[in-house]
Amino acid sequence: MDERAEKAREIMRGRVPKGFESLAHAYRELRSEFPDKSDSWFFRALYRALAGVERLRDGHWLVKGFPELGDRKPVYNVWLHEGRYRCDCFYRAHGWAREKQICTHIAAVMLWRRQTRLSEFRELGTR
Prior knowledge:
Blueprint: H1 3-12, H2 21-33, H3 39-51, E1 53-57, E2 60-64, E3 75-81, E4 84-87, H4 95-101, H5 104-126
Antiparallel strand pairs: 1-2, 2-3, 3-4
């Protein structure tokens, strides 16, 4: 098992690895927002977030693709426009289903944004 998978499973079990407190908190927030999502969905979102989300500019991120998670592309674009997320996986096979159910590329960005917000908030409190 690779390190990302191990960390994702630890966070899902409530065991927070040192240095991952803000991601664990972001995960709990996302979990409460989407209580009907499967453990597999959350695992894939965490795995992607742990691999790193790259912010290109306001409202545009890149999320690394992983063949082991069913991805066919090395990178996916996620956009936020007028309060609505979009992912370029919507324009691929089964995209209509992903769009209606929120793909894990978008979930990774949601986790990243929450984690970033929490980290910035924590830094402000220590100054």
